[in-house]
Amino acid sequence: MLSARLESLPITAKAIILIGISTLLISCETVTYYTQAARGQMAIVFGRQDIQGLLKSEDLPTELQEKFSAVLHIRDFAARELFLPVGNNYQTYVDVDREHVVWNVFAAPEFSIEAVNWCYPIAGCVAYRGYFSETAALKFAAEWERRGFDVYTGGVDAYSTLGWFQDSLLSTVLSRPDYQLAALIFHELAHQVAYVPGDTTFNESFATAVEREGLRRWLLDSDQAATIAIARSSRERQQQFVELVTSYRDQFDQLYQEQLQTQEMRRRKHALQQQLRADYEASKRRWGGDAGYDAWFSNSLNNAQLSTVSSYNDLVPFFMELLTQADGNLEAFYEEVERIAALDLERRELLTQAVD
């Protein structure tokens, strides 16, 4: 677990540290990138409003009252029942006044499913590059496209600062139903339980496993039959979406192993992308026309885009098996995950690959 000393530092000291990091890393990254990241985070920190104080306001709209109250209940459940390190997270609200808080850029070679990693001083190496400006993200993406890489840019509505700051409820997630908001909070808090710098798949798969188990328990606790049915249906469709995409990811990988001429490889790649779209349309018909993933499938379905799904799901079966072995005891589960997170890469991969 990350050191509590981070949270004890004054906000201004953290701002100075973040800006200072950018000047120290000029040889491998641009100062501009780190400065925009620090400024973006500081804008969120200094825009925070206390939720308890907002709830006392007489002119607070009813929908915000209900959403803020729900978040406080979700916080309590996360601490009491899921043993997550809630601390002072999600006690404040920030209106970021834009559609997404961050835009992440993913890149992968034209004929490889392995995403490019970028390395940072706090998060380690991750498979994306984040910008607080969509324009800046698209500019960076265009640079990598010109270099011949597959590129995907996606908006992000929330993220974890890994204990560096108190995470806030953002305006970008207010439209989500309460059960989706609960899942999001459980996921982001899980990153403060265990985080391995440089291992995106381990980190995100663990957080996804905690999210799923946390949501299951939260729904049972809420005893809302209608909500449980909706959430179960949504979860089943999400699982079918993941299975569909990862099965094609494997087919792309097999294709790239073949010794083909460039034009033939591109033709076969395009054919697989079209087949993936067709299979998605078939899934939609089975779902009664649910168009929840239409926006995702409206993109190119290139290697960079496919990598975003695998990072969040590939090791979920491994973590769910660990939870089963712990007889559902979350505290014991977290201890085992922390133990595995402390292993070197080779030993960690041997363990995580043991579950198919």
Can you characterise this structure?
A 3-stranded mixed β-sheet has the order 1-2-8. A 3-stranded antiparallel β-sheet has the order 6-3-7. The chain has a domain at 1-46. The chain has helices at residues 5-8, 11-24, 31-46, 51-55, 62-80, 134-146, 178-190, 200-222, 225-256, 262-286, 294-297, 303-313, 316-325, 330-341, 345-352, and strands spanning 49-50, 92-94, 102-108, 118-120, 124-126, 129-131, 150-156, 169-170. By secondary structure, it is mainly alpha-helical.
Summarize the structure.
This protein has 356 residues and is mainly alpha-helical.
Sheet bearing the most strands, described? 3 strands, mixed
**What is the CA-atom radius of gyration, in angstroms?**
21 Å
What do the pLDDT scores average to? 90
Helix content estimate: 55-70%
- The low-confidence runs, each spanning 5 or more residues with pLDDT under 50, are 1-9, 20-28
> Which percent band covers the strand fraction?
5-15%
Largest beta sheet: what is the strand line-up? Answer: 1-2-8
- Count of helical stretches: 15
Shape: globular
Number of strands: 8
What is the straight-line distance between the termini?
27 Å
Helix and strand content put the structural class at: mainly alpha
List keywords for this structure.
356 residues; mainly alpha; three-stranded antiparallel β-sheet; 8 strands; disordered N terminus
